[in-house]
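G., before I forget:
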Amino acid sequence: MNTMTKVEHTEHHGPAAGISRWFYTTNHKDIGTLYLWFSFAMFLTGGCMALMIRAELFQPGLQLIQPDFFNQMTTMHGLIMVFGAVMPAFVGLANWMLPMMVGAPDMALPRMNNWSFWILPFAFAMMLSTLFMDGGAPNFGWTFYAPLSTTYAPPSVTYFIFAVHMMGISSIMGAINIIATILNMRAPGMTMMKLPLFVWTWLITAFLLIAVMPVLAGVVTMMLMDIHFGTSFFNAAGGGDPVLFQHVFWFFGHPEVYIMILPAFGIVSEIIPTFARKRLFGYSSMVYATSSIAFLSFIVWAHHMFTVGLPLMGELFFMYATMLIAVPTGVKVFNWVATMFRGSMTFETPMLFAVAFVVLFTIGGFSGLMLAIAPADFQYHDTYFVVAHFHYVLVPGAVFAIMAGVYYWLPKWTGHYYPETMGKVHFWCSFVGVNLTFFPMHFIGLAGMPRRIPDYALQFADFNMVASIGAFIFGFSQLIFLVLIIKTIRGGSPATPEVWDEPEGLEWTIPSPAPYHTFTTPPEVK
Amino acid sequence: MKVTRLMTLLISTSSVSYARADWALNMPRGVTEISQSVFDLHMIIFWICVAIGVVVFGVMFWSIFHHRQSRGAKAHHFHENTLVEIIWTLVPFAILIAMAIPATATLVKMYDPSDADIDIQVTGYQWKWRYQYLGEDIDFFSNTTTPLEQINNEEEKGENYLLEVDNPLVIPAGKKVRFLITSVDVIHSWWVPDFAVKKDAIPGFINESWTNVPEPGIYRGQCTELCGKNHGFMPIVVDVRPQAEYELWVAQQKNIKAQEIASAKQSISMEELMSKGEAVYQTSCAACHQANGEGIPNVFPGLKNSPIATGDINQHIDIVLNGKTGSAMQAFREQLSAVDLAAVITYERNAWGNNMGDKAEPAAIDELKVAAKQ
């Protein structure tokens, strides 16, 4: 009798049939899947734009695209990758994993969850539609500095502003949902200091989102007022201040870059202990380091503005504060290394991506430390050295961590192991491609090539060619990833509930694939 | 190599060889005291990073090779060690303090523009630089001279491709030169790597920077803040000359100015205005309105059959001299001489089938220029 009711109960609450399942779903797993597919589509879209940029930069001279379209490509590539690929991918992983990790049946606010996702396709449809408008898409860089983005912007800037508003609403709702879930829906016994690190880093990320997305909304609204309603927030001729734009933008922008890396820290901190078969070396120091990084992210924004003519005291403050970030970041890297030390390691695809993350993110951290030195930044600022730096922390940083997470949890989601050899081929192609693309950019940046230029002087020709070849290798390797995911969804050897060799965490106590509803009765955590 | 060739075939539209392609890896040391101390800072922090990298990656790869399951490694279940954690927090902190001291010293020097021998105002325009020598009555614009044919791969690229201008900034060697940097439209950034001078040119702000170049020579740089369509085509060339040659140059500039004023008084033939006008148009107008006068739809209006270029000549003169507020159309009154202005307006009224048949007189434009100054 008891079993009967249970079965009926599950059937009644199974996924709806047909396409409407995806429109009306309030299930965290379905919404997680939607987010992940959406972000992958955006990753390929933004990637195509990157390849157009790299194809034009393959040789000096203008071959394929004209400067104005080149600027549209750099702008859209940046916006799509930041807001369309990396952020939704982390939200997708959070949706799938957080409830399972804290032992909750679903997210705290399931209907809002549906809405936060379904805003995104419309926001990006609006953003991409600007490519087909008269005057072209936004062409002022993803940092959209005024007055280039106000007085001198193409008419499509208004669509861009509304698209950014919609993304902001989506992110804020997603963040509220995550905080509410983590704070209220933990299983009995799951105290804060027992939370998996992916949950901890996402909790801190969600607070960062709530703090800074309204600032972004504020700055684009000020732009809207300047463009359409005759105000002069950023217009010097009307008594406004173009530098104010940069202060407000980077007050959002710097925490934003940590929003894109903290969940990556969390993923890597889950994966390394599993494949080293050893506990994370310093759990609590990881939590404190993440919190310190989040706090510091609010007081370093003007290091993006060392050349705008800040007063000397301002330069010194932001230089010292920025250098300080190296300390908690170092703590994290040392922790990962200490976890690997004297472990019993194996190198399945998630671990390969995680190890590459640690190495390449650290290289990005080193160039970040170099950029923090204000006098040296006068030479680095707005050159390819900066492009190399932030791509190192975002591509083999954030993106590799997302891929590591996908490989790590894919058997849990689909119930099948992914083809291991194919995963390794994907990893090595990506690894070679990424380094071939971004490492030479350090050299051309130091040699003096400014960023965001469609054509360059002849001494930069060699390394640009190398970078372009690397970009095509990296870009096309992602098709392997796509094929692998589809294959794994369709079939493969069945995965055990634990999937890996004695991993820690509640998500490994439920069957693979994870049932549509999990933890309807909360588990007991000791 | 095969891949390289294949890609070359696929992408290039012409087989242009490069006069100067090298595999430079590092920042130039530069020629000034400041640029050299910046270079030293860069190398110190670089070697610190290398040292930390060797230790961290060394331990990591040692573990990866020795502590792997396939070599029979058993996990040792240790975790948390307060002493180790304190050490790896304090040691980086100490390194950072050691690094901050020389960085602060260099920054303080960079921020001291006092006791300059010469003051030059540098103004960014879309997409050229204007140099005004304060107190010297020298004032000129500096435009890129790289021909479109080279950019479009129809001609072999020159040695200083994209890094060449018509009028370089000329400064004396061994003198402290203060730059007052600003902009009239969007934000630009004035950068000469060999001087380690990079400062944003921001409308409504005047930023200060300075240099003192001991060695005469030609130094090249570029705009480094995205400033619109032709951001990549806005080079900077600084010609550093010995004091005596610099003084000679200053005297020459004054002569040229006097000649310009004299020639503005003379009437010039239609043919001469048209040929001069075409040259001026290519340098100053074609970036937006395009060489064929058709502009870019919904971004920059065309001049072919436009109401301005085929309408009242006084309105045409007004918009060229004073610009159009709220648009990218700049005021060219200060940028061009009276003769050049007359020539370019005449050209615009008679090229591309506009055939208005009238011409602008340099003398009349000179009067407008003089009147605007008073």
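The two ends of chain A are 31 Å apart (CA to CA). Residues 67-102 of chain A form the longest helix (36 residues).

More on Monday.
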